[in-house]
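REVIEWER CHECKLIST
Item 1: Sequence provided? yes
Item 2: Single chain? yes
Item 3: Sequence as submitted:
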Amino acid sequence: MKRERLDKILANTGKGTRKEVKQLIKQRIVTVDGVVATDPGMHVIPEQQHIEIDGVPLQFKRWVFVMLNKPAGVISATEDALHETVVDLLPDEWRHKVHPVGRLDIDTEGLLLLTNDGQLSHSLLSPKKKVDKEYFAQIQGRVTEEHIAAFKQGVTLDDGYETMPATLEILHSGDISEIHVTIMEGKYHQVKRMFAAFDLKVIYLKRVRMGPLLLDESLELGEFRELTEEELNSLRKGQEAE
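Item 4: Structure as written out by the authors:
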């Protein structure tokens, strides 16, 4: 198992910045295996050694996998000077540890995975893996069978890019249509631009699935939970081939 600096471990578990946790160590309230720690740079194995802060055991997790039901108005980033970010919605012990896997537009809601597992994140985002993303959308305008056929062939966006084939399912067609669309890419504003190619406007967009991972509909907007073992295993299994 990996040895890490004590101050890094404390900071990554939400106990403060590196500077702040060094102060905790200086106050002699941090112990490792019952011995007072005096060196912020001491190397420990957090999975094997017992760390306490002022008598409270440190709850250490190497990997974190969080499902968030992202609300509109929040950006998919770890920090921003102007807007609330998705990590601002999380508790301290995760906030400085995880990053969003991909991005949802500021006005898009729904499923967002956050993790500190860079390998899984890269795999889920790699174009070679062709991980599908499914969205529910409300469209201003009538969506027809012709659009289904066009999406199946791939759509030419405003910059000339030809998308990969996409699956379009019409739930309701009318002045305001409701659809499910599944894409295997993540181009900037892709779903909106695909419909814009047919002079249709997306007025509401929500991601409901990423690969085998389904949005937990019991989560209210802004709520989150850790992935279950079953969900995590299904994600990893889906990325084994390549």
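Item 5: Key structural point noted by reviewer: The chain has a mean pLDDT of 93.
Item 6: Recommendation: ____
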